[in-house]
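Please predict the structure of the following assembly.
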Amino acid sequence: MSETVLVIGATSGIARALCRVLAARGCRLVLAGRRREELEVFGRDCVLRGAPEVAVEPFEALDFDSHEAFVARCFERFPGGLDGVVACHGTLPDQAATERDAALARRTIDANLSSMVTVLHAVALRLEARGDGFIAALSSVAGDRGRASNATYGAAKAGLTAFLSGLRNRLAGKGVRVLTVIPGFVATAMTEGVLDPDSPLVATPERVAHDIDRALRRRRDVLYTPWFWRYVMLAIRLLPERVFKRLRI
Amino acid sequence: MTPEGSLPLRRDPRLPTRALSGWGRCLVETCSVARPTDVGRLAELVAGGRSDPDREPGPPDWIPRGLGRAYGDSSLNAGGGVLDLTRLDRLLAFDPETGVLECEAGVSLADVIATFLPRGFFLHTSPGTKHVTVGGAIAADVHGKNHHHDGSFRACVRSLRLLLADGSLVECSPAERGDLFDATVGGMGLTGVIVSARIRLRRQPTAYYRVRYRRTTNLDAALEAFAESDASYRYSVAWIDCLARGAHLGRSVLMLGRDAEVADLPPARRAEPLRVAPVWRPSVPVPLPGVALNPLTVRAFNAAFWARHRDGERTEDFDRYWYPLDRVGGWNRIYGARGFVQYQAWLPRASSRAGLVELLEAISASRRASFLAVLKACGPANASPLSYLDTGHTLALDLPYGDDVPALFDRLDAILLRHGGRLYLAKDALTSPERFAAMYPRLEAWRKVKEAVDPGRRFASSQARRLGLVEAR
């Protein structure tokens, strides 16, 4: 099986681990992100790990007008277009900073949500026309219920989860699968200094990547990874607001 | 969900300090940990530059760390910084003609094996765990079961790229900046940060080894068996029963190996000789109570091990042969909350028999339970002044940490020094600067290089301060 997969935000921790899993099972990769040099180096790593071919495309999440052309270029990189897209870009700013800085708050929503909508719409049109393929995007447990410690980020991720659900609904029966990935705590550069990597609640990106790969192959709709977060978040969603608003979790 | 206090969230993201320990878990230090994802950020950290004005000023000095498999305090830096290099884990180039792999320092040996063994390449040599990084393997100049035949890890290092204290990157190899190369291999990360390396992998016909088990009833028989078989076997190691005394002192099971050819494999495996079926790996999730290992349980383990390994020959896959301990995840936790220490001693051939007898008698008399004691004959030294092995024998044994252990290690050190032996820095946790200096006669050559490349002491570890490799802050 030699699929061609576009990974957006490919230098992020989870994306890196996922690219390696995909490379090891022989996928062609288009790596997109901001740091071109780093992507070139990482692309060679993927080839050494088994990817038959790797291409690098610059991607700027906040430049919405560029997204249509970006997606068009990615589909043209290899003959046969793309079989799937995994969108992993995002940013996790300090919540308090987003409360004081309106521009930062807006950038947080734009990078985590608006850019996902514009870029995945462009992807969906093309895959829909092909009648085959998959879309996956990294949302977060933060989007399952708004909390004081990450309300801005959580709002964007809640929007993303709703968007992916809508996209899946739209593409059902058209041959295009949509996977919502909801990771819990993961030790990556994004959570450096925020999460304690030694905690048993914190997963490695490799573990998460392995789960995502399996969910893609099994054509799942929603993936909580590690698995126990599905039940943790179920419990949290079931708490009445009257109680929840007083908790500091 | 748990209340906020028990969530793994940090209050102040500007101060990522963590309590770190080595694999032995007996020494724990609070260090500032940085985990850069690229060389640029790494260089900024080392040079003390502050690209992010919100961050606190950096720590006074740094020590690089890989997967934290050194047992003592080699990769700890109390009150200073630790550079966790596990995200510098990219493969950079591979030449299937020569087998030379260029990779970043944070690539683990497990990763190298998983990627290249299916293509018929294996490591030149490996320590008893594959969960170490390439950078760590070079910095400790690790050795393995083939030391008597192939030397230590240094033998496969073509060149390495080193980030110096001033933030510059230099290439070094035996031919280019040879002194710096020599001091960096085995130099425990104190000359600079190994950023990437070119290492030569070896062609391997199969993922299997033919292993011959040979029991010997005492130490003399074991040493004789090594001398007899080391010319004809590429790999050799002996498990030695530290609780045996008197006429049975040093009774051992020798495990002699050679690379299995396709024809050596059972017919079912010949179609895919480089493939090993994955197996379930148990793991130790939490530290066991301190009493789990006591002379009774260890005696039972040792007796069972002895009974199970009758003389004979069989075929074993690389995981089983090289990495029996990796089969149990987090096995260091069986030693309980106080952790354990390893005493790994090398003795020169001329005095190794007498030295080993004294060491074994002292350990046996101490009644400290030790299982997993390992004996190996080793080949000649290399040009690195702090490289551990030379012609002779090395003995390694794990002991649960306890209040009486430092005194026992003092006695063992005295025996070692009397016989001209030395300790392995990757395992050491307790020795003194005077003893260390007496063990490593080429120390001054190393100091000269350190002084030249790092006059401001940007690289230091808890171990380096303890042993006087750098002065106290």
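Chain B touches chain A at residues 1-4, 7-10, 13-14, 16, 18, 35, 37-38, 87, 90-94, 115 (CB under 8 Å). Confidence is low (pLDDT under 50) at residues 1-7, 9-15 of chain B.
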